[in-house]
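Bench notes, afternoon.
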Amino acid sequence: MTLLEWILSSLGLYVTTVGALLLFLYMYRSPQVAEYWASPEGKTEYGRHRRRMVIGTGLLAAWLVLENAASLFLN
């Protein structure tokens, strides 16, 4: 792998990691929008899906952080 390929790969991985972390932090600290407009059933479904999305994006962000660290330190 050439230096340019390594730099572009690391940069792309870094940008993706930052995007996943920002998405996770937004979803984790987002206001409870469903409290204002949803029915009681809608509130429970929104909460359930929101929790699943927070877990999914958290796992994605954690995986990308590990992958980013491995690509920077092992190459």
